[in-house]
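Obj: model holo form, ligand = beta-D-fructofuranose.
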Amino acid sequence: MKQIINRCVVSALLVGGIIMPSVAVGAEGVEINHLGPTNTLVRVKGGDNYLLLPVQEHFEDDAKINVLVDGKLEETIYVRLARTKTDYTVPYDLSRFKDKNVVLDIVTGQSRNSVRDAADDVCWDEMIITDTFDTTNKETKWRPAYHHTPLYGWMNDPNGMFYKDGVWHLYYQKNPYGSKWQNMTWGHSTSTDLITWEAQPDAIRPDGLGAIFSGSAVIDHNNTAGYGEDAIIALFTSAGTSQMQSFAHSNDNGQTFEIYEGNPIITLDTEARDPNMFWNEKTGEWNLVLAHALEKENLFFTSPDLKTWTLSGTFGKGLGAQEGVWECPDLFELQIPGTGKTKWVLICNINPGGPFGGSAIQYFIGDFDGKTFTSDTNPDGTVTTKWLDYGKDNYALVSWSDAPDNRRTTVGWMSNWQYAADVPTMQFRSANTVPREMELFVDDEGELYVASVPSPELLKLRDKVVDKASNKTIGEKETSYKLPADGICEIDLSFQATESDVVTFTISNPEGEKVLMKYDAKNHRMSFDRRESGVVDFSTKFPAVTSSPTFEKDGKINLRLFIDRSSMELFGNNGEFVMTNLVFPNAPYTTLSMESKNGDARLDDLKVYSIKL
Ligand code: FRU
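Output (holo structure tokens):
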């Protein structure tokens, strides 16, 4: 239990010319000395427990905390220590430093006038030692039921995903000390079904070279790096004053990583990040694609051993969307359906500059000769900008390495840098998309595109059919169907709009909040309007209408809509068009309505499935 204790005088400070002792205060086992208006020492003993750090969500100043263990600098972390009100606490794990002296040398913001001011901050009284940290879900309204989320704190990009021995490993950009971006660490979760995820201990923590930014991981089947057959090798960006690429290996299937003492392994004199590597069967060497962020291009490297990399090519300057920085690339080969031939796909996440503002995923289709990528071009030599997702909330999507059955399974971060830090959740911030399989398809004009097909595992989510219909007319008069009471469902419907101009599908709740999805039969486009979907006012960039080409010409559409507590993922015609959008309704959506303008449409089939939780 928390106890305020007074301890003997351990240091002194000068107030108005008189030396005043600084009295150590703090909860049991926590000794706090205020040394000045912006500097405080917190001393604890390492053990099987945590020091809780109180955080104030909207307080912009991060305290800089140098953690000293037995007098040596262990790490520096940044935490928005609560000043006037504690919104939540985060755990500082002391089990790594058993029986050692742990000193947090804390420098807070500059706005305090005196040491007394500093001592008034609420965080000091609430820093307590505890055996357990409560991660019970407090975000019952909006924490997704079947999407991956961190147990607590901030998450952005998925990282280093690999599949081994039946386990899907998902690492991610994590802040262990708050719900906003900071202290980038590789968090880790595992799954055997791509649906239910188990949180694992943090895998790679910041070191002397900086924070651990995005990267990839592979299984080194042939022991090319010398850490043993099937060792896991991770490459990531060390982000300190500059960005450089670093190496780590794991001999326990990705549970713990040892950071290479010879890091960094790739240095450039310009900003580059998010290394993504793969074994090239044809050339018998490793390939790596690296985002040359500010140059808006990708760099390619080759390596025999995953440590020594040689620059082999560049691609992208002046091509595709060039507005934002280029980040998180991925490169893989896919079959062209019905031809026995293949093409290479270069995924190129960009921010900002997406079709609806902020973050988005563009991709190029072309060839890769083991050294560099070349894009397919139009007859006039131009390159069409292609988007993988026409919603606002799918970013930093990359694929799993070593996925079974030649699958190219991917997952994205379901948010947008425009408002990711402002979405109305606090215990956790952000979820991943549902898993999606990358497949090529050819449109009516013979142009190749990438489809995002819902992974087959998602079929197992289907529980009861809560409503259904077949062979019904969709007319001017609205018809309505039931969604489950908790609003969590998959809607699978097929319709034909051969006679109609616009078919509107509305997902709504009794509070009048709604999402409108309109199919425009003339222009072959589908739109998604979340302007009245619920809470939308946390950012001016959030209330939006997104819209996608549907890539068909016959007005026949199948939609699979995955609704979770705060997201909708709309897959059209087996993923040929996709819109991923967050929504924050005040009550679950319980109704699906449809209507058609200027002529009837036909509902061939509808099934609303509740979800097996
Ligand atoms: C993309 C990104 C990456 C970087 C990471 C840092 O969202 O900016 O380029 O590695 O986030 O968290």
